[in-house]
Amino acid sequence: MKMTQKINFEENVLEWIQKKKRIEGELSSTRKQNVVPVGDEFESIRAQLDYFVDNVAYLTARRTKGGIFTVDAEDDVQDLLFTMLKPSFPSLVFEDPDSKGAASYAIKDLYFPMSKVVLEAKYISSPKDVKSIEKQLHDDIMKYSGTERCNAIIFFIYDPNFSISDRRQFVEKMSQEKGKFMRDGRHITITTIIKPS
In terms of C-beta density within 10 A (0-12 exposed, 13-18 middle, 19 or more buried), how is residue 117 classed? Predict the structure, then answer.
């Protein structure tokens, strides 16, 4: 190889490396703009869930002669959560399907794609529902934690009749702090919230 060819080759390699670094920097910047850190969005979601009971109280005792909104089933809880959270989280998806393989899929009640947070809503009307809900939560953990589209799961349980007798114990049993639950090499945060608390 002649000296001029070698210099041109080295210049081309250096130019290519600089271009590659510039493109990687731009991509990294774009990714940072489009991905909300799990902790930020996760904590914001949790904070807004504290107002669920206030919203139920307002909608079930409206001042006008318009329709009264009742919250006495799981789909009512899902609808109210969606309308509460959508203005603050525009990317929120209602009933997001997630492929689990050729023959099956899971449908998340509410999904926050920016931070990969799944929000599952449950309604408990009587003490006999508690065991069934507990089993559903276990099944949901296995279902959602098995996909890369899940970094955290929030179980929101509306229990207006206080059917769960030991709420603190139930929450501790059905929650896992970040780093405590691992699936396929990924840490999944699992939080359970019961309202009214």
Answer: buried
pLDDT attached to residue 74:
92
Asked if residue 151 and residue 70 are part of one domain, the reply reads yes
Measured at the alpha carbon of residue 146, what is the angle toward residues 79 and 73, in degrees to the nearest 5? 20
**70 three-state secondary structure:** coil
Residues 55, 20 share a domain: no
* pLDDT computed for residue 151 by the predictor: 87
Instruction: Answer yes or no: do 121 and 187 share one domain.
Output: yes
59-109 pLDDT tens trace: 887 777 766 788 999 999 999 999 999 999 998 988 766 644 434 456 778
What's at 129, amino acid-wise? Answer: D
User: Given this model, what pLDDT does residue 23 score?
Assistant: 54
Whole domain around residue 89: which residue ranges? Answer: 36-195
> Is 11 in the same domain as 103?
no
Question: Same domain for 111 and 186?
Answer: yes
